[in-house]
Amino acid sequence: MPQGFARVAVAGAAVSLTCTLAACSLGTDEPDDAPAREEPGPTLAEGPPPADWQDVPSATGLVYSVPPDWDVGDPWGEPGPDASSDWGSGFVTTANAIAERGYCPTAGLSFRLLSGITETLPGDARDQAVSASRAMADSIDRRFTEHGADTAVPEPTKIGVSGVPAWHVSVRGQVRPPRNECTPPVIRVDTIAVSTRTPAGDPASVVFVLMTDEDEPGTLDTSTVDAVVASLRYENTV
């Protein structure tokens, strides 16, 4: 990454069982005109993360896992998963992890990968996935490159996180030349917005975000990055 990086339930309805001599039927206490529950899409994970990976928990109950040699905590040195990081463009995360801090000797802060989880944000999860991806695309263009990047934001894909509906966007920023030695040709950003509700019952989401270098020697294996993204889950699940 370039020099000068700024610090920047499922709640089920009550179920009633109605029985007659002929048969039993399941019913719910919801009114007939209640909106249908949103169904989750497919999970990204093909299995649990490797046994030696470390978990990165958040106050929201979401957790993800990273390889044992990655640092967990604020990338500017504050220890612990609760330290916050400002990504620019108004995006703040806790539950942060960073890979290969200081890999480029000419940068004030360099890293191969940075990831984190937001607090609960108001708004529909699909909208949040798009909004967060656009904010990160803007950060790639303005903060993480010297001459900008061409960064298209694709349509989000519906997935499931521990059986909860979520939306995933994977962005590739094509860095414009000339690049310095700390900037890769491609910067990847993944966002996953997981559906939840505010205490008042309004739509909300929690957003996981990951940024990493791609397409040059020394970058992380794509399979490892994919496994970190796919490991996002709620703490009481595997």
Description:
- This protein has 238 residues and is mainly β.
- Mean pLDDT is 82; it is low at 2-31.
- The radius of gyration is 20 Å and the shape is globular.
- Strands 5, 6, 7, 8, 9, 10, 11, 12, 13 and 14 form a ten-stranded antiparallel β-sheet that branches. A three-stranded antiparallel β-sheet has the order 3-4-15. A two-stranded antiparallel sheet has the order 1-2.
- Strand 13 (186-197) and strand 14 form a beta hairpin.
- The chain has helices at 125-142, 222-230, and strands at 15-19, 24-28, 54-57, 62-66, 71-72, 85-86, 92-99, 113-117, 121-122, 149-151, 157-161, 164-175, 186-197, 203-214, 233-234.
In short:
The protein is about 10% helix and about 35% strand. By secondary structure, the chain is mainly β.
Structure keywords:
238 residues, mainly beta, ten-stranded antiparallel beta sheet, three-stranded antiparallel beta sheet, globular, disordered N terminus
The helix content is 10-25%
Q: What's the β-strand tally?
A: 15
Structural class: mainly beta
The string of secondary-structure elements, in order, is EEEEEEEEEHEEEEEHE
Tally of DSSP helical segments: 2
Q: Shape from CA axes?
A: globular
- Please indicate the percent range of residues in DSSP E strands (runs of 2 or more): 35-45%
Unreliably modeled segments:
2-31
| Radius of gyration, taken over Cα atoms and rounded to an integer in Å | 20 Å
Major sheet summary line: 10 strands, antiparallel
Whole-number average pLDDT?
82
Oligomer: single chain
Straight-line N-to-C gap: 33 Å
